[in-house]
UniProtKB/TrEMBL annotation:
Record-stated family: Belongs to the class-II aminoacyl-tRNA synthetase family. ProS type 2 subfamily.
Gene responsible for this protein: proS
Domain Aminoacyl-transfer RNA synthetases class-II family profile: 38-340
Source species of the chain: Pelagibacterium lacus
Pfam family, any one: tRNA-synt_2b
Protein's UniProt name: Proline--tRNA ligase
Length: 449
């Protein structure tokens, strides 16, 4: 992408309304634009990050055996009257009527709808286990939307729903999602710790929140320090096998959100020098809730004994539009964002130090073509502006590698590579630069394979 033809409305000033660093940087880097309270347009740079996050989530959900579909944003109130949640949900639910005066709502979550889809077509235990997910916009009329897309009213969520014949089988489905989540956050460069959590309005008796530690987080959390370097399951983990030992590696060490925190247990189970009492950002939550919806809504299957049973369900959410600021909270410096390669909007930015100079332009064009041919996702800063502004933009928008090309270096056959994260600079022969970048970038992609 040529920056001169792109849409990147960066801001020089720090926006006053933004209280936390990720919100400030997302506005300054031209990633989002507010359209109403708690509602944001995703501008091209931000949208590219969001799509990369979506891709990782889909790959890991599919690997774990979940199947993608797409449900509508608007739902009928009658569906929610069946589960009893239409009245319970309160003011967070955005309610409306269509032209026939039928009560509708903008879905805050999809347990009811997926249960209705399930009951209309699944009859036998032979079709289980089943896990269906979608990635769709949700609306919750938050009393205090804030921190940009961290807590917005309209937000993008991945929500998966599992169906099993028994609690025992449902726990296996829960474990599959638990392991998929560990891999998903790791691939995004995030350290997210599963902590036992309260089930809230979703209901149920088993739940974990996946939490990224950050001072600006809204939840108080308590955990064992060793969880910060517990091993992440590899890509060849067998989702058809027994995952309980992986899950217990994580759940045997103390980790709880403030609602579920037990100070006595924390004191007795965690040595003094291993205690973390901190703040965190909830980037996902998994629930097992048994027959809470299947019972009242009549989602039943015939078991091997010929008897009808209500299915055991779980639901599994990830907030995509919250993950973007969570990554920024975890990875930035005074100059701007520092994207992990796997979610970076571009992998490398080519900085032409003298746009307009025929020879310099020709060398840059050639490198730009080579970057593309090497399969690297490159942004080419071809604007006719000063080098200082180009460096500032590149640092602000956080592209992991900068390839800096100017007349002086070219005269010596050299260009420079700057690592955004460490600030390290390498001078390298112009012919070797692209191969070097490829070697730096490919291992950092954390690809599906
Ligand atoms: P919170 O406690 O932060 O309000 P929640 O527990 O109500 O969130 P869930 O129902 O667990 O949210 O939704 C699944 C995920 O969706 C959350 O883990 C979070 O990542 C994301 N999410 C929930 N509410 C919002 C919001 N208002 N803005 C952005 N993301 C959200
Ligand atoms: Mg939650």
């Amino acid at each position: 992408m040529r920056l001169s033809r792109y849409f990147l409305p960066v801001l020089k000033e720090t926006p006053k309304e933004a209280e936390i660093i990720s919100h400030r940087l997302m506005l300054r880097a031209g990633m989002i634009s507010q359209q109403a309270a708690g509602m944001y347009a995703w501008l091209p740079l931000g949208y590219k990050v969001l799509r990369k996050i979506q891709q990782i989530i889909e790959e890991e959900q599919n690997r774990a055996g979940a199947i993608e579909l797409l449900m509508p944003t608007l739902q009928s109130a009658d569906l929610w009257r069946e589960s009893g949640r239409y009245e319970d949900y309160g003011k967070e639910m955005l309610r409306m009527q269509d032209r026939h005066e039928r009560d509708m709502l903008y879905g805050p979550t999809n347990e009811e709808m997926i249960t209705a889809i399930f009951r209309s077509s699944v009859r036998s235990y032979k079709d289980l286990p089943l896990n269906l997910y979608h990635i769709q916009w949700k609306f919750r009329d938050e009393i205090r939307p804030r921190f940009g897309t961290m807590r917005s009213r309209e937000f993008l969520m991945k929500d998966a729903y599992s169906f099993d014949l028994s609690k025992e089988e449902a726990v296996k489905s829960y474990n599959r999602m638990f392991v998929a989540y560990l891999r998903t956050y790791w691939r995004m460069g995030l350290t997210a710790i599963p902590m036992r959590a309260e089930t809230g309005p979703i209901g149920g008796d088993l739940s974990h929140e996946f939490i990224v530690l950050a001072d600006t987080g809204e939840s108080g959390v308590f955990c064992h320090a060793d969880l910060l370097d517990t091993a992440i399951p590899s890509a060849d983990v067998d989702f058809d096998g027994d995952l309980s030992s992986i899950v217990s590696d994580w759940t045997s060490l103390y980790a709880a959100t403030e609602d579920m925190h037990d100070e006595t247990e924390f004191d007795s189970k965690v040595p003094q020098d291993k205690r973390i009492a901190a703040r965190g950002i909830e980037v996902g939550q998994v629930f097992y809730f048994g027959t809470k919806y299947s019972e009242p809504m009549g989602a039943r299957v015939t078991g091997p004994d010929g008897k009808d049973t209500a299915v055991h369900m779980g639901s599994y959410g990830i907030g995509l539009t919250r993950i973007v600021p969570a990554i920024i909270e975890a990875s930035h410096d005074d100059d701007g964002i520092v994207w992990p390669v796997s979610v970076a909007p571009f992998e490398v930015v080519l900085i032409n130090l003298k746009s307009g100079d025929a020879q310099c332009d020709a060398a840059n064009e050639k490198l730009y073509g080579q970057l593309h041919a090497a399969g690297l996702d490159a942004l080419y800063d071809d604007r006719e502006t000063g080098a200082g502004q180009k460096f500032a933009t590149a640092d602000l928008i956080g592209i992991p590698f900068q390839l800096i090309v100017g007349p002086r270096g070219l005269a010596a056959g050299e260009v420079e590579i700057k690592h955004r994260k460490t600030g390290e600079r390498e001078t390298i022969g112009v012919e070797d630069a692209v191969a070097r970048l490829k070697a730096l970038i490919e291992p950092e992609r954390r690809d599906a394979a």
